[in-house]
């Protein structure tokens, strides 16, 4: 941020604003005043107004700031796009565990939102990641430039959910369900199936108990067939 004309103290506060605006956006809030931001973040309203004045014409007096616009602006400004944003659909047992696993720490991949159809889950958050209703999918993926989704819904709705994701603009699906999904050729689907991995491991233990040529760690469901034909 050194080349920007923004004071460093302001630059340091921008991620705080960004995170709070994400929360407001998650609960469907469209506008926020500097007084509201001030209460939530414990920053003086005059400081907030001054900080935002460095960013250009973002709000009007008495009207407050447009949450989506401000969020988009800050996201571009903070270069959040350098991180690959991902969404997760189906916040059940597996989905919740994946949301809790902090990909971001070790990789430039971030799950920005979860989606579910269960009203008890919508509007909550899992370790700071908001859970939205399915009808907000398109809006959220556009806002965060998301092209990749992790699919952890029950198998019986996997295909219809995948179709919905593709229609919303998703181009890559990491499929944890046992369903074999069909999608247009430009959409990439990767399947992750613990059962197959486990069966493969057991197969090798049973059939090649002391195979010295086997290379532990390099065998998985993808190469089982080839090796099994030997
Ligand atoms: N790949 C693996 O290794 C592995 C391991 C365990 C489970 N699974 C699979 O992952 C999936 C999820 O398993 P789980 O144990 O977390 O199930 P779960 O029932 O705990 O969670 C499923 C979630 O999907 C939500 N959901 C249902 N229908 C939906 C819809 N139409 N749109 C959006 N959300 C919807 C439910 O409300 C629930 O929160 C299953 O398909 C299961 O077979 C895979």
UniProtKB/TrEMBL annotation:
InterPro entries: CoA-bd, NAD(P)-bd_dom_sf, Rex_bacilli-type, Rex_DNA-bd_C_dom, Tscrpt_rep_Rex, WH-like_DNA-bd_sf, WH_DNA-bd_sf. NAD(+) binds at residues 90-95. One of its GO terms (cellular component) is cytoplasm. It comes from the Bacteria. Residues 16-55 bind DNA. The keyword Acetylation does not apply. The keyword DNA-binding applies. Its main location: cytoplasm. One of its GO terms (molecular function) is DNA-binding transcription factor activity. It is found in: Cytoplasm. Residues 79-180 form the CoA-binding domain. GO terms for biological process: negative regulation of DNA-templated transcription; response to redox state. Keywords: Cytoplasm, DNA-binding, NAD, Repressor, Transcription, Transcription regulation. PANTHER family: REDOX-SENSING TRANSCRIPTIONAL REPRESSOR REX, REDOX-SENSING TRANSCRIPTIONAL REPRESSOR REX 1. Belongs to the transcriptional regulatory Rex family. Modulates transcription in response to changes in cellular NADH/NAD(+) redox state. Homodimer. This is Redox-sensing transcriptional repressor Rex. It comes from Paenactinomyces guangxiensis.
